[in-house]
Specification:
A six-stranded mixed β-sheet has the order 2-1-3-12-4-13. A five-stranded mixed β-sheet has the order 8-7-9-6-10. Strands 5-11 form a two-stranded antiparallel sheet. Helices cover 37% and strands 21% of the residues. It is an alpha/beta fold. It contains eleven helices and 13 strands. Helix 1 links the parallel strand 1 and strand 2.
Length: 308
């Protein structure tokens, strides 16, 4: 697998002990420590740390195992940690999950969805500052060589893959045809760069723009959305395939039961606020749910990330 040298896909930034050795295995085949990895925004560590501590405590109670939290700021680091068997469970972007299935033996077991069991989804966008003279996608395409665009992470679904695929479908090679391409590595960083005018356009998540507008971090009109992607499956909870089957099912069940058994942990998982999301829950997930996204990736020229 290769990637353009300009893209920092291999950036590995661990904030906790992802360098630990493999956990010892008990007589029942279960590891003595379950290592749960989560990709966090370096811009707002407080809520993320609270969320992860609640999740760690909940999983320890439900699984009767010591749980170690591993934090990183790059999806590439999660993939490499899975490959090296230094983590057992991870919340990971859909595209990074697809890449992880090629480099390591991992499988999806859960994702956020509806209480009726329907898997959830979200959308990526291309946006510009609210006062930008770029008023449409046609304007963006016409003036691409004059513009700086921000993507998130090379393994991000809504912050790179779907926008890359769309732009290529319009005859634009993003890494070649823009004046400058930057990778912010977090969605909040891309939005802040857009708001401050440091970039002319950005790829990010539609729901983050809406959340920032609702919480006052963005005012209405600070950014203008030019394009919205088709739906992307929500990020999965993924596990190593070689974990004992009963442990994998216990982990799945723990996430599915979280809204009922630990509402505080569940709220922190979804909104980070004091109000539970209406009608949402964790639902079971499987690998086939990501086949549509695999097809999108295969159609992206020169990406060379997926086996054909």
């Amino acid at each position: 697998m290769r990637f353009c040298a300009a893209v920092p896909f291999a950036a590995v930034i661990f904030l906790t002990s992802c360098g630990t050795t493999s956990a010892s295995i008990g007589p029942n085949g279960r590891p003595s420590v379950l290592r749960y990895c989560f990709t966090v925004s370096g811009l707002d560590p407080g809520p993320a740390n609270h969320r992860l501590e609640l999740t760690r405590r909940y999983l320890e109670r439900e699984l009767h195992l010591k749980v170690e939290v591993v934090k990183t700021t790059a999806y590439g680091a999660v993939i490499e940690a899975f490959r090296a068997k230094k983590i057992d469970v991870a919340s990971i972007s859909p595209f990074a999950y697809i890449l992880a299935t090629q480099k390591a033996r991992v499988e999806a077991i859960a994702m956020r969805g509806s209480r009726d069991g329907t898997p959830g989804d979200y959308s990526g966008v291309i946006a510009v500052p609210g006062d930008s003279p770029i008023r449409s996608i046609d304007d963006l395409l016409q003036h691409s060589r004059e513009l700086t665009i921000s993507f998130v992470d090379p393994a991000s679904s809504s912050g790179f893959l779907v926008e890359n695929a769309f732009l290529q479908s319009k005859g634009i090679e993003p890494l070649r045809d823009f004046k400058k391409v930057v990778f912010s590595m977090t969605h909040p960083a891309s939005l802040l760069a857009l708001k401050s005018g440091k970039v002319d356009a950005a790829a990010t998540m539609l729901r983050l723009i809406k959340r920032y507008e609702e919480t006052g971090k963005l005012a209405k009109g600070d950014v203008r959305v030019l394009w919205v992607s088709p739906n992307i499956p929500n990020q999965p909870i993924a596990v190593r395939k070689d974990l004992p089957q009963d442990l994998k099912e216990d982990i799945r069940r723990a996430f599915l039961d979280m809204p009922r058994k630990d509402p505080e942990a569940w709220i922190s998982q979804t909104t980070g606020s004091s109000a539970a999301p209406t009608g949402e829950a964790y639902v079971s997930a499987n690998d086939s749910m990501f086949d549509g996204l695999r097809e999108v990736a295969r159609d992206v020229k020169d990406l060379s990330l997926l086996d054909r």
